[in-house]
Amino acid sequence: MKNDIDNKTRAQIPERCRIGFQRYTVVKGDTLEKIAKRFNVTVGFLIVENPHIKDPNKLSPGDVLCVPIQPPPGVGRIPESCPIGYEKYTIKSGDSFSKIAQNIGVPIDLLIWNNPHIPDPNIIFPGDVLCIPVPLKLPSCNLLKPINPSMQNTFGSAMVQKQQNGQHLLVITGVNLPNPSLLGNYDGYDGFVGIAGIGGYGFQLTPVSIEEGLWIGSLIIFPILSSGNQVYIIPSNSEVSVPSKPILEGMLK
Fold it and tell me: Which residues belong to any copy of the LysM domain (predicted)?
């Protein structure tokens, strides 16, 4: 009886576990690595969630950890839909946001932004479903078409290449663009690419020949471009902010 009392006294037990977590009692043979694998989290995550464990390398039977509550087998968190250019990916045992982001070559923040149905990216379970970007087949060259049918002779292109450092180079070209001043209080054109979860990036195009309507510009960004991203050429004013609408549009594929 005395030994039982001593064991209970020595057991490391948290005061409470936060919402979404349950108590797990350590049994003989358990290690933090084994428990982390069982609940599909990292060892570091368990250490942070269990500050009452003085030495993570020394667990004893009777110690209690706070671990994520797992959904019933076959029941995963599934998004209603994915953004354009994204596809559904079902989580497997051993997956993590960081591993998935690394495998498909995108920043982890992009996955977090586009998967709001997963409230804590550190806690995912087999059967959960994520929206992940459909990768571009690089190099990618895409046609930009006029939005207004009256500008049928105006067109452009959006080309994406992969740099040696892994970043994306986006080059937007406009051909037969009218002098921007003919469209309103404008003196130039901007290229713009829309990216789900971020909004997008805009950048100035440089006139190669205003008479021939040839404009070109480029942007180097993190490898976050994916199939389905919308690309536009928009009239702009370099000195003041003037509302404008795109004249050319296209989609990366």
Answer: 22-67, 87-132
Range of the domain at 22: 2-68
- Count of structural domains within the chain: 3
Token pair 């990768």 is at which residue? 135
Please state whether the predicted TM-score (pTM) of the whole model is above 0.90.
Answer: no
Write down the mean pLDDT value for the chain.
90
Beta carbons of 148 and 247 less than 8 angstroms apart: yes
b/e code 132-150 from CB counts within 10 Å (16+ = b): bbbbbeeebebebebeeee
In-domain check, residue 77? no
- Distance between CA atoms of 251 and 144, rounded to whole angstroms? 8
Collect all residues with Cβ–Cβ distance below 8 Å to 243 and sequence separation of at least 6: none
C-alpha 219/C-alpha 114 separation (Å) is: 23
Distance CA 106, CA 133 (A): 8
Q: Among 124, 130, 136, which Cα is nearest to 88's?
A: 130
One-letter identity of residue 9: T
Asked if 66 and 39 touch (Cβ cutoff 8 Å), the reply is: no
Q: How far apart are CA 249 and CA 253, in angstroms?
A: 13
Residue identified by tokens 């080059």 is 171
Mean pLDDT within 20-30: 93
For residue range 210-232, list pLDDT tens digits in order.
778 999 999 998 888 889 999 99
Cα 4 from Cα 31, distance rounded (Å): 22
Last residue of a domain, one of 68, 95, 120: 68
